[in-house]
Amino acid sequence: TCRVSMSMAEIRAGFTAIKANIQSRDPIRTLSILSHPHSLHKVKSSDRCCITHQLFTFYVDKVFKHCRTEDSFVNRKISSIANSFLSVRRKLGQCREQNNCVCGEESTEKFKQILANYEGLNVTSAAMKSLGELDILLDWMEKSR
Amino acid sequence: SGELYCSLPNPRNVHFESINMKNVLHWSAPEGTGDGVFYKVKYAVYGVGKWIRKPECRNINRTWCDLSSETSDYEEQYYASVKAFLNGTCSDWMETTRFNPLTDTKIDPPMVSVSSTDRSISIILTAPEKWKRSPEEESVSLLQVYPGLQYNVSVLNKKTKKRWFFSISNNTLVVPWLEPGTVYCVSAQIHVTTPVLDSGFSKEHCITTLKDK
């Protein structure tokens, strides 16, 4: 198994501080990047590590860098969350190298769907929507601890 | 649908008020409107492409609508919206911010029961239940919803006014080495570490330790 320590409360606090601001920049109610059509909560436990690693890579590579705002407070919170994600992704990467974080078909399919949702929007809208859904990821991670 | 020109001011402060995941939509009447305003309510599951009308909250003149049943799946997030009508005119639809039942609910204090011997008191704590549609429905404790749920317990010696604080994860606590024949008052709070959620403290439960044998 792959055990990774992370400052969940710190990430959660950072997101809570900017949640209303970020979500108000996403006018699209009818589309979700992470939770539809397939919910993260339906992912098998054996696939959880892999999809977590894929999602942290997704946020580092495709989300945070496209979420600059005109608000310096918000930008600081985003970069603090991004730094936490970077360190967790590195640890998860080590698990993958040691074959403790295997990717099954389900997580591959699920992640494909997430990328398809993301690519269905222009980059800035997709990145901002993904950032606004961070609590969906955190809720799922806490529940499946 | 018979709506004429929508020039009515909008309902204000449309928001969810949630306690133990009983999720009630509240709003304020449009500015400057007295009696006679009626409202319609609709809601949407975030990420799903349709708004759903709430029949029980159609043409109502109160300024709240219980959407607990419609928002009971706390793995989803929601929006709700309200429209006002008066004398044939109407307002725009006014929406809530995105509502996440898991992080946006408030939690009631735990139930506290206390018993004593001559030199100790035993405390049993019970977390509140998640809102449910009917008494027959299976109860879900908030302990099941929040794996990181803990209790903060305060014990006060009424005579010396000395107070102890304990933070525990399981729901029982025995406080030893107390004074016989003394009144101790217990109060407890729920603390969820992440997402950060704190209940208020329960009212005090006082008990007297037995006299020395």
TrEMBL record, chain A:
GO terms for cellular component: extracellular space. Immune regulatory cytokine. It comes from Leucopsar rothschildi (Bali myna). The gene is Il20. Belongs to the IL-10 family. It comes from the Eukaryota. Keywords: Cytokine, Disulfide bond, Secreted, Signal. Transmembrane segments: none annotated. Disulfide bonds join 2-95, 49-101, 50-103. This is Interleukin family protein. GO terms for molecular function: cytokine activity. Coiled coil: none annotated. Its main location: secreted. It is found in: Secreted.
